[in-house]
Design a protein that fits this description.
Belongs to the polyadenylate-binding protein type-1 family. By secondary structure, the protein is α+β, with helices and mostly antiparallel strands. The chain is built from 16 helices and 27 strands. 16% of the residues are buried. The N and C termini lie far apart (108 Å).
Length: 519
Protein backbone atom coordinates (compact mmCIF):
# COMPACT_ATOMS: atom_id res chain seq x y z
CA UNK A 1 0.00 0.00 0.00
CA UNK A 2 2.83 2.36 0.92
CA UNK A 3 4.69 1.51 -2.27
CA UNK A 4 1.69 2.37 -4.43
CA UNK A 5 1.32 5.70 -2.65
CA UNK A 6 4.95 6.56 -3.38
CA UNK A 7 4.52 5.56 -7.03
CA UNK A 8 1.43 7.76 -7.31
CA UNK A 9 3.36 10.64 -5.82
CA UNK A 10 6.19 10.23 -8.34
CA UNK A 11 3.75 10.07 -11.24
CA UNK A 12 2.18 13.35 -10.11
CA UNK A 13 5.57 15.02 -10.76
CA UNK A 14 6.72 13.42 -14.02
CA UNK A 15 9.19 16.21 -14.72
CA UNK A 16 11.22 15.29 -11.61
CA UNK A 17 11.99 18.96 -10.94
CA UNK A 18 12.73 20.22 -7.43
CA UNK A 19 12.60 23.74 -6.02
CA UNK A 20 15.52 24.48 -3.67
CA UNK A 21 15.02 27.61 -1.57
CA UNK A 22 16.63 29.62 1.25
CA UNK A 23 20.01 29.43 -0.49
CA UNK A 24 22.98 31.56 0.49
CA UNK A 25 23.75 34.21 -2.14
CA UNK A 26 27.17 32.61 -2.76
CA UNK A 27 25.77 29.17 -3.64
CA UNK A 28 26.45 28.27 -7.29
CA UNK A 29 25.11 25.62 -9.66
CA UNK A 30 28.37 23.69 -9.26
CA UNK A 31 27.84 23.40 -5.50
CA UNK A 32 24.29 22.16 -6.04
CA UNK A 33 25.51 19.66 -8.64
CA UNK A 34 28.06 18.24 -6.21
CA UNK A 35 25.36 18.00 -3.55
CA UNK A 36 22.53 16.41 -5.54
CA UNK A 37 24.51 14.24 -7.98
CA UNK A 38 25.11 11.77 -5.14
CA UNK A 39 21.42 10.82 -5.41
CA UNK A 40 21.24 10.20 -9.15
CA UNK A 41 21.83 11.59 -12.68
CA UNK A 42 20.87 15.25 -13.12
CA UNK A 43 19.61 16.85 -16.31
CA UNK A 44 20.11 20.49 -15.37
CA UNK A 45 20.48 22.94 -12.50
CA UNK A 46 19.51 26.61 -12.67
CA UNK A 47 20.25 29.18 -9.97
CA UNK A 48 17.77 32.03 -10.51
CA UNK A 49 19.35 35.48 -10.70
CA UNK A 50 18.30 39.08 -11.13
CA UNK A 51 18.18 39.99 -14.82
CA UNK A 52 20.09 43.25 -14.35
CA UNK A 53 22.41 42.81 -11.38
CA UNK A 54 22.89 39.02 -11.88
CA UNK A 55 22.73 38.56 -8.12
CA UNK A 56 21.30 35.33 -6.81
CA UNK A 57 17.61 35.35 -5.85
CA UNK A 58 18.42 32.66 -3.27
CA UNK A 59 16.56 29.81 -4.93
CA UNK A 60 17.23 27.29 -7.70
CA UNK A 61 15.69 24.42 -9.67
CA UNK A 62 17.25 20.95 -9.85
CA UNK A 63 16.01 18.65 -12.64
CA UNK A 64 16.71 14.93 -12.25
CA UNK A 65 16.56 12.38 -15.07
CA UNK A 66 14.36 10.04 -13.04
CA UNK A 67 11.43 11.03 -10.77
CA UNK A 68 12.45 8.41 -8.22
CA UNK A 69 15.77 10.19 -7.67
CA UNK A 70 13.99 13.52 -7.18
CA UNK A 71 11.72 11.90 -4.59
CA UNK A 72 14.72 10.45 -2.77
CA UNK A 73 16.46 13.85 -2.69
CA UNK A 74 13.30 15.46 -1.32
CA UNK A 75 13.02 12.85 1.45
CA UNK A 76 16.68 12.67 2.47
CA UNK A 77 18.20 16.10 1.79
CA UNK A 78 15.52 18.50 3.00
CA UNK A 79 17.00 20.87 5.63
CA UNK A 80 20.58 19.71 4.95
CA UNK A 81 23.11 22.50 5.48
CA UNK A 82 24.77 24.13 2.45
CA UNK A 83 27.01 27.15 2.98
CA UNK A 84 25.76 27.31 6.57
CA UNK A 85 22.04 27.45 5.68
CA UNK A 86 19.42 24.67 5.71
CA UNK A 87 18.02 23.81 2.27
CA UNK A 88 14.25 24.08 1.79
CA UNK A 89 13.33 21.54 -0.89
CA UNK A 90 9.91 21.04 -2.44
CA UNK A 91 8.38 19.90 -5.70
CA UNK A 92 8.52 22.55 -8.40
CA UNK A 93 5.02 23.99 -8.83
CA UNK A 94 4.76 25.21 -12.41
CA UNK A 95 1.20 26.46 -12.01
CA UNK A 96 1.01 29.51 -9.69
CA UNK A 97 -2.58 28.79 -8.60
CA UNK A 98 -1.60 26.68 -5.59
CA UNK A 99 0.85 29.31 -4.36
CA UNK A 100 -1.43 32.31 -4.87
CA UNK A 101 -4.68 30.93 -3.46
CA UNK A 102 -3.10 29.96 -0.14
CA UNK A 103 -4.95 26.63 -0.02
CA UNK A 104 -3.36 24.44 2.66
CA UNK A 105 -1.12 27.25 3.95
CA UNK A 106 -0.86 27.60 7.75
CA UNK A 107 0.58 30.43 9.85
CA UNK A 108 2.28 29.68 13.20
CA UNK A 109 3.54 32.28 15.70
CA UNK A 110 4.85 32.53 19.30
CA UNK A 111 7.52 29.97 18.41
CA UNK A 112 10.54 29.46 20.65
CA UNK A 113 13.74 30.86 19.13
CA UNK A 114 15.36 27.41 19.33
CA UNK A 115 12.81 25.84 16.98
CA UNK A 116 14.14 25.49 13.43
CA UNK A 117 12.37 24.53 10.20
CA UNK A 118 13.27 20.84 10.56
CA UNK A 119 11.77 20.54 14.05
CA UNK A 120 8.63 22.40 12.97
CA UNK A 121 8.32 20.13 9.93
CA UNK A 122 8.39 16.94 12.00
CA UNK A 123 6.01 18.40 14.60
CA UNK A 124 3.32 18.95 11.92
CA UNK A 125 4.12 16.11 9.49
CA UNK A 126 1.67 13.75 11.25
CA UNK A 127 -1.31 15.68 9.85
CA UNK A 128 -0.53 15.22 6.17
CA UNK A 129 2.00 15.68 3.38
CA UNK A 130 3.89 18.97 3.70
CA UNK A 131 4.91 20.82 0.55
CA UNK A 132 6.95 23.51 2.27
CA UNK A 133 7.98 24.52 5.79
CA UNK A 134 9.75 27.75 6.67
CA UNK A 135 10.60 29.78 9.79
CA UNK A 136 11.19 33.46 9.12
CA UNK A 137 14.56 34.84 10.20
CA UNK A 138 16.07 38.32 10.43
CA UNK A 139 19.23 39.54 8.70
CA UNK A 140 21.45 38.05 11.42
CA UNK A 141 19.83 34.62 11.01
CA UNK A 142 17.85 34.66 14.27
CA UNK A 143 14.30 33.30 14.33
CA UNK A 144 11.54 35.90 14.20
CA UNK A 145 9.27 33.61 16.21
CA UNK A 146 6.83 32.77 13.42
CA UNK A 147 6.68 30.60 10.32
CA UNK A 148 4.57 28.95 7.62
CA UNK A 149 3.66 25.38 6.68
CA UNK A 150 2.10 24.56 3.32
CA UNK A 151 0.13 21.30 3.33
CA UNK A 152 -0.80 19.47 0.16
CA UNK A 153 -4.52 19.57 1.05
CA UNK A 154 -6.74 21.98 2.95
CA UNK A 155 -8.09 19.06 5.01
CA UNK A 156 -4.62 18.39 6.43
CA UNK A 157 -4.18 22.11 7.16
CA UNK A 158 -7.53 22.31 9.01
CA UNK A 159 -6.64 19.23 11.07
CA UNK A 160 -3.30 20.79 12.06
CA UNK A 161 -5.02 24.04 13.09
CA UNK A 162 -7.61 22.25 15.23
CA UNK A 163 -5.07 19.99 16.94
CA UNK A 164 -2.09 22.34 17.39
CA UNK A 165 -3.57 25.79 18.06
CA UNK A 166 -3.08 26.63 21.74
CA UNK A 167 -0.76 23.68 22.43
CA UNK A 168 2.76 23.95 23.84
CA UNK A 169 5.82 23.47 21.64
CA UNK A 170 9.17 23.64 23.49
CA UNK A 171 7.48 25.12 26.57
CA UNK A 172 5.71 27.92 24.67
CA UNK A 173 2.04 28.17 23.76
CA UNK A 174 1.79 28.54 19.99
CA UNK A 175 -0.84 30.15 17.79
CA UNK A 176 -1.85 28.28 14.60
CA UNK A 177 -4.29 29.65 12.01
CA UNK A 178 -5.00 29.82 8.30
CA UNK A 179 -2.58 32.00 6.38
CA UNK A 180 -3.99 35.30 5.14
CA UNK A 181 -2.27 37.46 2.55
CA UNK A 182 -1.78 41.17 3.21
CA UNK A 183 -4.59 42.04 0.77
CA UNK A 184 -7.12 39.74 2.44
CA UNK A 185 -6.42 40.78 6.04
CA UNK A 186 -8.96 43.09 7.68
CA UNK A 187 -7.82 46.66 8.32
CA UNK A 188 -7.95 46.47 12.09
CA UNK A 189 -5.99 48.91 14.28
CA UNK A 190 -2.77 47.55 15.75
CA UNK A 191 -3.30 46.49 19.35
CA UNK A 192 -0.53 46.45 21.95
CA UNK A 193 -0.14 46.30 25.71
CA UNK A 194 3.59 46.94 26.07
CA UNK A 195 4.72 50.58 26.19
CA UNK A 196 8.20 52.05 25.76
CA UNK A 197 9.19 55.06 27.90
CA UNK A 198 12.26 57.28 27.55
CA UNK A 199 13.70 60.75 28.16
CA UNK A 200 12.88 60.95 31.89
CA UNK A 201 16.55 61.07 32.90
CA UNK A 202 17.12 61.50 36.63
CA UNK A 203 14.02 63.61 37.12
CA UNK A 204 11.85 60.62 38.12
CA UNK A 205 12.79 57.40 39.84
CA UNK A 206 11.12 54.02 39.20
CA UNK A 207 8.57 54.49 42.01
CA UNK A 208 7.44 57.89 40.69
CA UNK A 209 7.17 56.58 37.15
CA UNK A 210 5.15 53.59 38.30
CA UNK A 211 2.77 55.86 40.17
CA UNK A 212 2.40 58.13 37.11
CA UNK A 213 1.52 55.26 34.76
CA UNK A 214 -0.69 53.40 37.22
CA UNK A 215 -3.23 56.22 36.84
CA UNK A 216 -3.80 55.08 33.23
CA UNK A 217 -4.76 51.49 34.07
CA UNK A 218 -3.75 48.26 35.74
CA UNK A 219 -0.04 47.45 35.26
CA UNK A 220 1.10 43.86 34.77
CA UNK A 221 4.85 44.64 34.84
CA UNK A 222 7.11 47.68 35.01
CA UNK A 223 10.88 48.02 34.54
CA UNK A 224 13.51 50.76 34.26
CA UNK A 225 16.73 49.72 32.54
CA UNK A 226 19.95 50.29 34.55
CA UNK A 227 23.69 50.04 33.87
CA UNK A 228 26.21 47.86 35.71
CA UNK A 229 26.46 50.48 38.50
CA UNK A 230 22.73 50.52 39.09
CA UNK A 231 22.17 53.96 37.50
CA UNK A 232 19.11 54.53 35.32
CA UNK A 233 19.70 54.51 31.54
CA UNK A 234 16.78 56.89 31.08
CA UNK A 235 14.35 54.44 29.47
CA UNK A 236 12.04 51.63 30.53
CA UNK A 237 8.95 49.54 29.79
CA UNK A 238 5.43 49.30 31.10
CA UNK A 239 3.03 46.45 30.30
CA UNK A 240 -0.69 47.14 30.84
CA UNK A 241 -3.45 44.62 31.34
CA UNK A 242 -5.42 45.67 28.24
CA UNK A 243 -4.65 47.28 24.91
CA UNK A 244 -7.10 50.11 25.60
CA UNK A 245 -5.17 51.10 28.74
CA UNK A 246 -1.86 51.05 26.88
CA UNK A 247 -3.30 53.20 24.08
CA UNK A 248 -4.70 55.66 26.64
CA UNK A 249 -1.28 55.93 28.33
CA UNK A 250 0.40 56.79 25.00
CA UNK A 251 -2.20 59.47 24.21
CA UNK A 252 -2.07 61.04 27.67
CA UNK A 253 1.60 60.85 28.67
CA UNK A 254 3.49 61.19 25.39
CA UNK A 255 5.00 64.71 25.54
CA UNK A 256 4.33 65.00 29.27
CA UNK A 257 6.62 67.71 30.75
CA UNK A 258 9.08 66.67 33.45
CA UNK A 259 11.15 69.70 34.44
CA UNK A 260 12.87 70.88 31.26
CA UNK A 261 12.28 67.56 29.46
CA UNK A 262 9.39 66.00 27.62
CA UNK A 263 8.53 62.36 28.22
CA UNK A 264 8.34 60.04 25.23
CA UNK A 265 5.75 57.26 25.47
CA UNK A 266 5.02 54.96 22.52
CA UNK A 267 4.23 51.44 21.47
CA UNK A 268 7.04 48.99 22.23
CA UNK A 269 8.67 47.63 19.09
CA UNK A 270 11.33 44.98 18.65
CA UNK A 271 14.67 46.01 17.22
CA UNK A 272 14.06 44.61 13.75
CA UNK A 273 10.68 46.40 13.65
CA UNK A 274 12.26 49.73 14.58
CA UNK A 275 15.05 49.31 12.03
CA UNK A 276 12.53 48.40 9.36
CA UNK A 277 10.44 51.48 10.14
CA UNK A 278 13.49 53.76 10.19
CA UNK A 279 14.61 52.34 6.84
CA UNK A 280 11.13 52.85 5.39
CA UNK A 281 11.00 56.48 6.50
CA UNK A 282 14.51 57.12 5.21
CA UNK A 283 13.67 55.68 1.78
CA UNK A 284 10.44 57.69 1.70
CA UNK A 285 12.36 60.88 2.48
CA UNK A 286 14.90 60.11 -0.24
CA UNK A 287 12.16 59.47 -2.77
CA UNK A 288 10.42 62.73 -1.89
CA UNK A 289 13.71 64.60 -2.30
CA UNK A 290 14.35 62.89 -5.65
CA UNK A 291 10.88 63.77 -6.94
CA UNK A 292 11.23 67.35 -5.70
CA UNK A 293 14.54 67.98 -7.48
CA UNK A 294 13.95 65.76 -10.52
CA UNK A 295 15.53 67.35 -13.57
CA UNK A 296 16.94 70.40 -11.73
CA UNK A 297 19.77 68.88 -9.66
CA UNK A 298 23.12 68.61 -11.46
CA UNK A 299 26.17 66.52 -10.63
CA UNK A 300 29.59 68.05 -11.28
CA UNK A 301 32.80 66.02 -11.20
CA UNK A 302 36.49 66.48 -12.02
CA UNK A 303 36.66 69.76 -10.08
CA UNK A 304 40.01 71.44 -9.57
CA UNK A 305 41.26 71.37 -5.96
CA UNK A 306 41.23 75.16 -5.85
CA UNK A 307 37.48 75.42 -6.59
CA UNK A 308 35.33 76.24 -3.53
CA UNK A 309 31.56 76.51 -3.05
CA UNK A 310 31.50 80.23 -3.73
CA UNK A 311 33.36 79.98 -7.03
CA UNK A 312 31.26 76.99 -8.16
CA UNK A 313 28.04 78.88 -7.44
CA UNK A 314 29.39 81.94 -9.27
CA UNK A 315 30.17 79.91 -12.42
CA UNK A 316 26.69 78.39 -12.59
CA UNK A 317 24.69 81.43 -11.45
CA UNK A 318 24.62 82.77 -15.03
CA UNK A 319 22.34 79.86 -16.03
CA UNK A 320 19.71 80.42 -13.35
CA UNK A 321 19.05 80.71 -9.66
CA UNK A 322 21.24 78.19 -7.80
CA UNK A 323 20.32 76.48 -4.53
CA UNK A 324 22.91 74.67 -2.42
CA UNK A 325 26.47 73.51 -3.14
CA UNK A 326 28.52 70.45 -4.13
CA UNK A 327 25.60 69.52 -6.28
CA UNK A 328 24.04 72.46 -8.09
CA UNK A 329 20.27 72.59 -7.87
CA UNK A 330 18.39 74.99 -10.15
CA UNK A 331 14.87 76.35 -9.88
CA UNK A 332 13.55 74.81 -13.12
CA UNK A 333 14.50 71.91 -15.43
CA UNK A 334 15.08 74.35 -18.33
CA UNK A 335 17.79 76.13 -16.34
CA UNK A 336 19.42 72.76 -15.52
CA UNK A 337 19.44 71.71 -19.21
CA UNK A 338 20.91 75.06 -20.18
CA UNK A 339 23.69 74.63 -17.58
CA UNK A 340 24.54 71.15 -18.92
CA UNK A 341 24.75 72.40 -22.50
CA UNK A 342 26.97 75.35 -21.62
CA UNK A 343 29.12 73.96 -18.79
CA UNK A 344 29.69 70.28 -19.63
CA UNK A 345 33.20 69.98 -21.05
CA UNK A 346 34.15 73.54 -20.11
CA UNK A 347 37.38 74.28 -18.25
CA UNK A 348 37.24 75.50 -14.65
CA UNK A 349 40.60 76.05 -13.03
CA UNK A 350 42.94 73.51 -14.62
CA UNK A 351 40.41 70.72 -15.25
CA UNK A 352 37.59 69.94 -17.65
CA UNK A 353 34.21 69.72 -15.94
CA UNK A 354 31.72 66.91 -16.26
CA UNK A 355 28.16 68.17 -15.72
CA UNK A 356 25.11 65.90 -15.82
CA UNK A 357 21.82 65.28 -14.09
CA UNK A 358 22.26 64.02 -10.53
CA UNK A 359 21.16 60.45 -9.86
CA UNK A 360 20.76 58.37 -6.75
CA UNK A 361 23.51 55.78 -6.30
CA UNK A 362 21.17 52.84 -6.99
CA UNK A 363 19.65 54.48 -10.08
CA UNK A 364 23.08 55.31 -11.49
CA UNK A 365 24.30 51.78 -10.87
CA UNK A 366 21.29 50.26 -12.63
CA UNK A 367 21.71 52.61 -15.60
CA UNK A 368 25.40 51.77 -16.00
CA UNK A 369 24.70 48.03 -15.80
CA UNK A 370 21.99 48.36 -18.45
CA UNK A 371 24.25 50.39 -20.76
CA UNK A 372 27.08 47.90 -20.30
CA UNK A 373 24.76 45.01 -21.13
CA UNK A 374 23.56 46.75 -24.31
CA UNK A 375 27.18 47.38 -25.38
CA UNK A 376 28.01 43.71 -24.91
CA UNK A 377 25.01 42.66 -27.01
CA UNK A 378 25.96 45.12 -29.77
CA UNK A 379 29.55 43.91 -29.67
CA UNK A 380 28.50 40.26 -29.98
CA UNK A 381 26.28 40.99 -32.99
CA UNK A 382 28.98 43.06 -34.70
CA UNK A 383 31.67 40.40 -34.23
CA UNK A 384 29.53 37.59 -35.64
CA UNK A 385 27.89 39.28 -38.60
CA UNK A 386 29.12 38.23 -42.05
CA UNK A 387 28.31 41.29 -44.14
CA UNK A 388 30.73 44.16 -44.73
CA UNK A 389 30.00 47.43 -46.56
CA UNK A 390 33.06 48.44 -48.57
CA UNK A 391 33.42 52.25 -48.94
CA UNK A 392 33.87 53.44 -52.53
CA UNK A 393 36.15 56.24 -53.69
CA UNK A 394 33.76 57.12 -56.53
CA UNK A 395 30.71 58.94 -55.07
CA UNK A 396 28.63 58.05 -58.10
CA UNK A 397 28.85 54.37 -57.33
CA UNK A 398 26.65 52.74 -54.74
CA UNK A 399 28.25 51.00 -51.79
CA UNK A 400 29.06 47.43 -52.68
CA UNK A 401 27.94 44.86 -50.14
CA UNK A 402 30.49 42.09 -50.17
CA UNK A 403 29.84 38.77 -48.54
CA UNK A 404 33.06 37.72 -46.83
CA UNK A 405 33.05 33.96 -46.87
CA UNK A 406 35.92 32.98 -44.62
CA UNK A 407 34.52 29.71 -43.36
CA UNK A 408 37.32 29.18 -40.89
CA UNK A 409 36.38 32.34 -39.01
CA UNK A 410 32.61 32.16 -39.57
CA UNK A 411 31.96 28.65 -38.23
CA UNK A 412 29.65 29.82 -35.44
CA UNK A 413 27.68 32.50 -37.26
CA UNK A 414 24.71 30.21 -37.87
CA UNK A 415 24.11 29.80 -34.14
CA UNK A 416 23.17 33.47 -33.76
CA UNK A 417 20.33 35.06 -35.71
CA UNK A 418 21.22 38.55 -36.89
CA UNK A 419 18.64 39.53 -39.58
CA UNK A 420 19.47 42.51 -41.79
CA UNK A 421 22.66 43.28 -39.85
CA UNK A 422 25.31 45.15 -41.85
CA UNK A 423 28.53 46.60 -40.43
CA UNK A 424 30.05 49.65 -42.08
CA UNK A 425 33.79 49.69 -41.48
CA UNK A 426 35.88 52.84 -41.91
CA UNK A 427 39.64 53.16 -42.33
CA UNK A 428 40.44 54.40 -38.84
CA UNK A 429 43.45 53.66 -36.70
CA UNK A 430 42.69 51.59 -33.62
CA UNK A 431 43.92 52.61 -30.20
CA UNK A 432 46.76 50.36 -28.90
CA UNK A 433 44.87 49.72 -25.64
CA UNK A 434 41.89 48.36 -27.58
CA UNK A 435 44.12 45.96 -29.50
CA UNK A 436 46.12 44.84 -26.46
CA UNK A 437 43.00 44.11 -24.41
CA UNK A 438 41.24 42.22 -27.19
CA UNK A 439 41.21 38.45 -27.43
CA UNK A 440 43.04 36.59 -30.21
CA UNK A 441 39.78 36.04 -32.11
CA UNK A 442 38.82 39.73 -31.77
CA UNK A 443 42.28 40.83 -32.99
CA UNK A 444 41.98 38.56 -36.04
CA UNK A 445 38.50 39.91 -36.72
CA UNK A 446 39.84 43.49 -36.64
CA UNK A 447 42.77 42.54 -38.89
CA UNK A 448 40.32 40.98 -41.35
CA UNK A 449 38.23 44.15 -41.57
CA UNK A 450 41.18 46.59 -41.90
CA UNK A 451 43.21 44.52 -44.37
CA UNK A 452 40.16 43.95 -46.56
CA UNK A 453 39.76 47.72 -46.93
CA UNK A 454 43.43 48.34 -47.82
CA UNK A 455 43.91 45.37 -50.15
CA UNK A 456 41.40 46.23 -52.93
CA UNK A 457 42.92 49.69 -53.39
CA UNK A 458 46.19 48.05 -54.53
CA UNK A 459 45.20 44.69 -56.03
CA UNK A 460 41.48 44.11 -56.45
CA UNK A 461 41.68 40.58 -57.87
CA UNK A 462 43.94 39.27 -55.07
CA UNK A 463 42.10 40.86 -52.14
CA UNK A 464 40.42 37.70 -50.87
CA UNK A 465 43.59 35.60 -50.91
CA UNK A 466 45.72 38.29 -49.26
CA UNK A 467 43.21 38.72 -46.47
CA UNK A 468 43.27 34.95 -45.88
CA UNK A 469 47.08 34.96 -45.70
CA UNK A 470 47.14 37.73 -43.11
CA UNK A 471 44.61 35.88 -40.99
CA UNK A 472 47.00 32.93 -40.68
CA UNK A 473 49.56 34.89 -38.60
CA UNK A 474 49.94 34.06 -34.91
CA UNK A 475 49.17 36.39 -32.03
CA UNK A 476 52.72 37.79 -31.80
CA UNK A 477 52.39 39.22 -35.33
CA UNK A 478 49.02 40.83 -34.91
CA UNK A 479 50.69 44.07 -33.74
CA UNK A 480 50.70 45.24 -37.36
CA UNK A 481 47.15 46.51 -36.75
CA UNK A 482 48.61 49.37 -34.71
CA UNK A 483 50.42 50.83 -37.76
CA UNK A 484 48.64 51.34 -41.11
CA UNK A 485 52.05 51.71 -42.84
CA UNK A 486 53.29 48.42 -41.46
CA UNK A 487 50.05 46.70 -42.44
CA UNK A 488 50.38 48.16 -45.95
CA UNK A 489 53.92 46.79 -46.21
CA UNK A 490 52.72 43.33 -45.14
CA UNK A 491 50.01 43.44 -47.80
CA UNK A 492 52.51 44.44 -50.51
CA UNK A 493 54.77 41.57 -49.45
CA UNK A 494 51.82 39.15 -49.63
CA UNK A 495 50.98 40.42 -53.12
CA UNK A 496 54.52 39.68 -54.28
CA UNK A 497 54.41 36.16 -52.85
CA UNK A 498 51.04 35.47 -54.48
CA UNK A 499 52.11 36.79 -57.88
CA UNK A 500 55.29 34.68 -57.82
CA UNK A 501 53.31 31.61 -56.80
CA UNK A 502 50.71 32.10 -59.54
CA UNK A 503 53.45 32.61 -62.14
CA UNK A 504 55.10 29.36 -61.04
CA UNK A 505 51.76 27.54 -61.23
CA UNK A 506 51.14 28.94 -64.70
CA UNK A 507 54.52 27.75 -65.96
CA UNK A 508 53.96 24.29 -64.51
CA UNK A 509 50.61 24.02 -66.28
CA UNK A 510 52.10 24.61 -69.74
CA UNK A 511 52.43 21.39 -71.86
CA UNK A 512 55.99 20.16 -72.32
CA UNK A 513 57.35 20.40 -75.89
CA UNK A 514 60.13 18.21 -77.37
CA UNK A 515 62.11 18.48 -80.60
CA UNK A 516 61.18 15.88 -83.24
CA UNK A 517 63.86 13.29 -83.79
CA UNK A 518 64.72 11.48 -86.90
CA UNK A 519 63.77 7.89 -86.89
Amino acid sequence: MATSAVSAKILSHPEASLYVGDLHSNVTATMLLQKFSTIGPILSIRVCRDMITRRSLNYAYVNFEEPIHAKRALDTMNFDLLYGRPLRIMWSQRAPDLRKTGVGNVFIKHLDKRIDSKLLYYAFSTFGNILSCKIMRNESGESCGFGFIHFETQEAADMAINKMNGTFLVYKKIYVARFQSCDSRPDSPCKFTNVFIKNFGDELDETQLHELFSKQGEIRSFKVERDEHGNSKGFGFCCFETAEEAEQAVKTLNGYSIGNKQLYVGRFEKKHQRLSEIKRKKELKKQESTNKYQGVNLYISNLDDTIDDEQLEKEFSNNGESKGFGFVCFSTPDEAVKAIEEMNGSTLGSKTLYVGLAERKQERRMRLIKEHKQQLQTSNISSQVGLLVRPQTNPKLQQEITDIRTTKHMAHVNSVECPNSIVVVGQERLAPTVINNATLQEQKQTLEEHSFLLTPQMQEELSGKITAILLEVDKTKLHVQKSPDLLKAKIEKAIGVLQAYEAKQANAAKPATTEPTDS
